[in-house]
């Protein structure tokens, strides 16, 4: 374990596994440490990190107070785990799609002329 020969150049690479979707990535220890510091000691892949940040920001906006990140991570972890039936990439992509769709519902509806893909129900599952 000679970790300090050339410490200005050290690039310790370790395998990190996403706490949410299980995606494995090789990262520098520094990067892993930074992510863990941000997400309550858990390492998240880029996609899940984005989602958790987004979640935390939403909670903050609603006036949830501090400590939001840990909750947001926990929420995203269980969200991802609930989707465990499909392969990781599909799961996450799917989850992201749902999330984006939910967000776009909050915006004024954009209508494109010609093809209307739904037109039937406004029941897109608002949670609150
Ligand atoms: Zn992930």
Give short descriptive properties of this protein.
2 strands, globular, 128 residues, mainly alpha, two-stranded antiparallel ribbon, binds zinc ion
Structural notes for this entry:
- By secondary structure, the protein is mainly alpha-helical.
- The protein has one domain (15-106).
- Helices cover 46% and strands 8% of the residues.
- It has 4 helices and 2 strands; from the N terminus they run E-E-H-H-H-H.
- It has helices spanning 29-38, 46-61, 68-81, 88-106; strands spanning 13-17, 24-28.
- A two-stranded antiparallel sheet has the order 1-2.
**Lateral arrangement of strands in the main beta sheet:** 1-2
The secondary-structure class comes to mainly alpha
Q: Name the helicity range.
A: 40-55%
The ordered string of helix (H) and strand (E) elements is EEHHHH
Number of domains: 1
Number of helices: 4
Chemical compounds bound to the protein: zinc ion
Radius of gyration: 19 Å
The best one-word shape is globular
Number of E-state strands: 2
Largest sheet: 2 strands, antiparallel
Mean pLDDT: 77
Q: Unreliable stretches, pLDDT < 50, 5 or more residues?
A: none
Span between termini: 53 Å
Strand content: 5-15%
Chart the SSEs and their pairings.
Layout: E1 13-17, E2 24-28, H1 29-38, H2 46-61, H3 68-81, H4 88-106
Antiparallel strand pairs: 1-2
Helix pairs in contact: 2-3
């Amino acid at each position: 374990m000679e970790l300090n020969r050339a410490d200005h150049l050290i690039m310790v690479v370790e395998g990190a596994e996403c706490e949410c979707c299980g995606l494995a990535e090789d990262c520098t220890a520094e990067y892993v440490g930074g992510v863990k510091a941000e997400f309550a000691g858990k390492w998240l892949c880029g996609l899940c990190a984005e989602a958790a940040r987004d979640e935390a920001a939403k909670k903050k906006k609603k006036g949830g107070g501090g400590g939001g990140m840990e909750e947001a991570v926990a929420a995203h972890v269980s969200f991802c785990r609930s989707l465990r039936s499909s392969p990781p990439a599909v799961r996450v992509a799917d989850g992201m799609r749902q999330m984006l769709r939910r967000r776009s519902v909050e915006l004024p509806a954009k209508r494109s002329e010609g093809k209307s893909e739904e037109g039937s129900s406004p029941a897109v599952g608002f949670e609150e």
